[in-house]
Amino acid sequence: ATVEMRDRLVAAGAALTFDLVATARSEGRLAVDLDDDAAVVSMLCGPVLYARLCQSREPSDEMIEAVVDAVLLSTVSAQDD
Q: pLDDT by residue (tens digit) across 59-78?
């Protein structure tokens, strides 16, 4: 039952993040062309889910902003290579 609940939580978070990435792209708010949405969603969701599930803490706004900045910077760096 616990694994089932975790799987539903992860799927819901990933679906929301996929939607946010798609919306940001369609509205022109996403400055970089992200080739692999699944990888980007994993990079965005991973730290947040880890904080919630493994550390039993709510991620701060500052932490989420740092994660988004790091992911966007890493995708820009990868495209420059």
A: 999 999 999 888 877 765 55
